[in-house]
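[Automated response] Your request has been received and processed.

Submitted sequence:
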Amino acid sequence: MTSLDNPDAIRHFQAVCDACQELISRHHSPHELRLYADGYLHALRRCERLERREVEKLEKFIERWILDPSSFIGPDGDSSSLFNQTQK
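Generated structure:
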């Protein structure tokens, strides 16, 4: 598995990435990003817009993306200080 092939799955992946970048800019934690992504994937499963296989593949891509610190750029442009912020 090296890439997403389904155009709808690619659009959903981009939507999750964009939303997570927005959450990061508001200093949310990786755990909170995972909760958001889980909810998004749950909604995809429920509405059956993608085949089960495609949702599973998308889930693996999102999981790897969230766990990779190089995926994120902090509000100050520095990814090294992203999650060192105090939560409100």
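Summary generated for your ticket: The CA atoms of residues 27 and 85 lie 7 Å apart. Residues 7-25 form the longest helix (19 residues).
If you did not submit this request, please reply to this message.
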